[in-house]
Amino acid sequence: MTAAARASLDVVGLTDHDTWAGWSEAAGQVPASGVALLRGVEVSASRNGTSVHVLALLPDPERGDLAALMERSRRGRDRRGRIMAERLAEDFPITWEQVRASAGPGATVGRPHLADTLVAAGVVTDRSAAFQTILAPSSRYYVHHEAPDPIVVVEAIVSAGGVPILAHPRAASRAGQGLSVEQIGELVDAGLFALEADHREHDERARAEVREIAARFGLPTTGASDYHGEGKPNRLGEHLTDREVFARIEDAGAIAVIRP
Description:
By secondary structure, the protein is an alpha/beta fold. The protein is 41% helix and 15% strand.
């Protein structure tokens, strides 16, 4: 929240992977930071080997099927993280316990935590280097994690009163080739609200394609920094969402944006 204030943001979204454990702590920083908080989650999904991330903005944790689905995804990510850590430990000086500690209490273990552990061990220089080599989907250390179909995820988000947005649908570095237009249409039928167009891993051609797909289905587009701390080059506020689209998200969500 302090970093968001330094970036001159008036509102920031907290969307950790498969957990809302950080919501309370972030909300407690709203008055001091002067930055409004949009609470959300980035939910993991998969379709035929393609990794899909769906943002759930302003969902109610007490409603619908989202909490149970997230718990299953979190357990799957932990299993995947342990297997990858054990494979890496055969060749590099790291342990699962170190990876788990890097994630911290309540966090879902993911590749960023594996990358941070490799950086701490001096194996690579930063997260980006780890993602491009040792932790790339083509690497022998990589493990695909069990995740529900994106249609199931979108339906679960809707059941919790959340606003589902397809994150970075044309990011070249993600596992798989991305969902087809027809598959995105299936998500729209299930209740998808918007597509994320402005993202560091979308070049101009990808952004134009996402906007074209969104227009085809009558959806708005959003932007996001996908900020993961200092371990990646992404910076808070480097991609923003139009105020009118944000107002629509706020109106559609089950819980309120927390304001100073």
